Amino acid sequence: MLSGNSVLDAPMIQPSRIHNLYAFPAGTIPPNPAELIGSPRLKKYLAALERHFDHIIIDSPPLLSVTDARILATIVDGVVLVIKGGETTKEAVERSKRLLLDVRARILGTLLNNVNMQTMNSYYYSKYYYYGYGYGYGYGPDSSDSKNSTGTTCPAA
Question: Which DSSP state fits 29?
Fold first, then answer.
């Protein structure tokens, strides 16, 4: 659609098993995705979708891998940073936050995934809870717990 090979129409928007939740599949990856995402055509299609839907969620590739997410961050109303628990380093989260702030993205919050709450002890969980809801995302000047004790992951930007 963004490359001009098709137009926005109802068959492209597919209903899910959840009432009032629809999906718009990405299709094949074009050779120039960043150019297409930054094109006026995307803004035009998003405006058309906004007339029919209350919320539009766009899934993007990882922020540090390609420029697509940074370009999208300049177009959308807000960004939720998804962090893979047990794998994403604190430095990667901080760099992601800087990149988003550099393009003046509105960070709505973070989502920590890949965490098994059944095997996690309460101390570990409480650190994530603190980061997600603490002052300045857990990095405030008065935050005595602003460093992750494991040094391996950080759940919030």
Answer: P
Task: Please count the CA atoms within 13 angstroms of the CA of 111 that sit on its side-chain side.
Answer: 7
Residue 84 sits at φ, ψ, to 5 deg, of -85, 110
Measured CA distances, 86 to 18, 91, 98 (Å) = 30, 13, 21
Structure tokens at 52: 């029919």
Tens of pLDDT, residue by residue, the chain (157 residues):
676 666 665 567 888 999 999 988 877 777 888 888 888 888 888 888 898 899 999 999 899 998 999 999 999 999 999 999 889 999 999 999 999 999 999 999 999 999 877 766 555 555 555 444 444 444 444 444 433 333 333 333 3
- Pairing label, strands 22-23, 14-15: antiparallel
Question: Distance between CA atoms of 11 and 35, rounded to whole angstroms?
Answer: 25
CA distances 6 to 11, 41, 155, Å, are 11, 12, 40
Question: Can you tell me the distance from the alpha carbon of 96 to that of 42, in angstroms, rounded to the nearest whole number?
Answer: 24
